[in-house]
Specification:
By secondary structure, the protein is an all-beta fold. The chain has no helices and 42 strands. It folds into 3 domains: about 130 residues, no CATH class; about 90 residues; about 300 residues, TolB, C-terminal domain (Neuraminidase, 6 Propeller), CATH 2.120.10.
Length: about 575
């Protein structure tokens, strides 16, 4: 079910609707046996690009046009409209090309309409369609949907609805189930095939199944792409009827749809024991999960969009897309987890603090004991990272060191300690350069190391300008370094080679503890002190920002899916 442009007040063109009357127009894919009715059956002037409407407020009753040669059958559909507001209305509308109040539309298909007697005001209406002339639960073709509209006094009030399987546009969000959201189902629906016709966004398409002929799925590539894709939905046979209305010349069953991918932002809310999801910079949450979450300290997505949450008391919960089911709980070997990382194979790494001093590795499906337990050189691990070769880097805050472990992580590590004092987080760029935040150094600093790494490795650069009680650092797609400064309520951005003055990003921040940067360069900052996430568009120095607050409470960590085309994000 879709509301095309023109829904709500207006859309009546040269027609007028009596005060207190609202005209509901429903565009149905099916058409009658002839492309247009005889002149005696054309009602009123054209309006909203659709021809053949009867006078507003009047349900026209026309003699069905003569059938074309050969037998013709049409899907029988009925719609119920239950409106609630200043006036309550429950009305049933028959939706076949030969039903009273239905006429062919110039744009294809058929338009059926009904007049509702509604007092002025704001309304919600529940719309349900049935594959029969009887509105019974057994013939319901899709879940009922709710729309909103406003009835204005003394003006044109027209509500436009469309029944079809080709929405104008879809935003693809990781883990967001798109199937069956824009088309009704049922025995009288055609089987559709879906093909990508253009666009730089390469999609994997799951074709409709026999049981759900109008439901298809799309999957974006593993790494985020800012492009779009055009899909063509082509109708096939209709089960249960002798003639296929979709193959008639003016039928409007199929269509094209534009796909636009959105990255998904996850926010760990430590005091609300929840994770909140936002899509593509939108200010309202897409979803939220709480089952199994207690004081979440870290987040990480895998390549499938599944999310892992580190719960401070001693467990990891994994939520598979679309996050509506019960989580998988990982408990063996987990103790006060402080950081997470996932490699390209989907293996999960957990930094276990509070005296455990281990990093445990788990292979899918994560239900057994750790495949590897790393303890050599681990001392209060607070941050993890992986480079392109699969080397694991562990920030050991108590021993002022970084330990690097080569796969399969059972050998002795390389220990880096020069220039480190209270290391609290790390980031790794595409060339394998390592950045480490020193929380206890005077002044506070971020130091950079370059490969190859040995016990004698020393910083190649020291960054101190603007650094003040830094939180979890991160990198953008151009290897720009972002440092959240809890002591100054700022984020400072440093460009390679990191020797110049930083860009100071301010506004809306209060105890910033973590950052994330999406593929468009949008910077997200988790503000632990005021229960918000603030968003900044590049080039960041303009002093403007957008605030996310709905569902956020003491945010501790951020993560993005799918991965930005940049070095893998490292979750503190």
């Amino acid at each position: 079910m879709m509301m095309p442009p023109g829904g709500g007040q207006g859309g009546g063109g040269s027609q007028s609707v009596p005060s207190g009357a609202t005209l509901v127009r429903v565009h149905v894919p099916w058409v009658g046996p002839s492309a247009a009715p005889p002149a005696s059956q054309r009602f009123g002037p054209a309006s909203s690009g659709l021809t053949g409407f009867p006078a507003p407020g009047v349900l026209a009753t026309a003699t069905p046009p003569a059938p074309s040669p050969g037998p013709t059958a049409y899907p029988v559909q009925t719609m119920t409209i239950v409106a609630n507001g200043p006036t309550s209305v429950n009305q049933t509308v028959n939706l076949t090309p030969v039903s009273p109040g239905c006429v062919p539309a110039a744009t294809g298909g058929t338009v059926c309409q009904a007049a509702l007697s509604l007092a002025p005001g704001t309304y919600t209406a529940t719309i349900a369609t049935y594959g029969s002339n009887v509105a019974a639960p057994s013939t319901l073709t899709a879940p009922a949907q709710t729309i909103g509209f406003v009835v204005a006094p003394g003006g044109n009030n027209v509500v436009n609805l469309s029944i079809g399987a080709a929405p104008a546009a879809i935003e693809v969000v990781p883990a967001n189930a798109l199937a069956n959201q824009n088309a009704a189902g049922g025995a009288a629906m055609p089987a559709f095939s879906v093909a990508q016709t253009s666009g730089s966004l390469t999609l994997s398409i799951g074709q409709p199944a026999q049981a759900t002929p109008n439901a298809f799925t799309v999957a974006p590539p593993p790494a985020y792409s800012s492009g779009t894709a055009a899909l063509r939905l082509s109708p096939g046979a209709v089960a249960g009827i002798g003639s296929n209305p979709c193959l008639q010349a003016a039928a409007a069953c199929g269509g094209s749809v534009t796909i636009d991918e959105k990255q998904l932002l996850a926010v760990a809310n430590s005091s609300a024991n929840s994770v909140t999801f936002y899509a593509g910079g939108q200010v309202s949450p897409l979803a939220s999960v709480q089952a199994g979450i207690t004081d979440p300290q870290g987040l990480v997505f895998d390549g499938n969009g599944d999310i892992f949450v580190a719960n401070q008391p001693g467990s990891i919960t994994e939520y598979a897309t679309p996050y509506s089911g019960q989580p998988t709980t990982i408990g063996a070997g987990v103790s006060h987890p402080q950081a997470l990382a996932v490699d390209v194979r989907g293996d999960l790494f957990v930094a276990n603090g509070n005296g455990s001093n281990t990093v445990t590795e788990y292979a899918p499906p994560y239900t057994g004991a750790p495949t590897v337990t790393i303890s050599n050189g681990v001392d209060d691990p607070v941050s993890l990272g992986l480079d392109a070769s699969g080397n694991l880097f562990v920030v050991n805050q108590s021993s002022n060191s970084i330990t690097m472990y080569a796969s399969p992580y059972t050998g002795a590590p390389v220990t880096i300690s020069n220039g480190l004092n209270g290391p609290s987080s790390l980031a790794i760029d595409a060339r394998g350069n390592l950045f480490v935040a020193n929380l206890n150094s005077t002044p506070n600093s971020v130091v950079e190391f370059s490969p190859p790494y040995t016990g004698a490795s020393a910083p190649v650069s020291w960054i101190t300008n603007g650094v003040n009680e830094q939180g979890a650092i991160g990198l953008g797609s151009s290897s720009n370094l972002f440092v959240p400064n809890q002591g100054a309520n700022t984020v400072t951005e440093y460009s390679p080679p990191y020797a110049g003055s930083p860009t100071v990003i301010t506004g809306g921040q209060n105890q910033p503890v973590a950052i994330a940067v999406d593929a468009l360069g949008t910077l997200y900052v988790a503000n632990y002190g005021n229960n918000t996430v603030t968003m900044y568009a590049p080039p960041y120095g303009g002093g403007s920002w957008t605030t996310l607050a709905n569902g956020i409470s003491n945010p501790q960590a951020l993560s993005l899916s799918p991965a930005t085309n940049a070095p893998a994000q490292l979750i503190p």
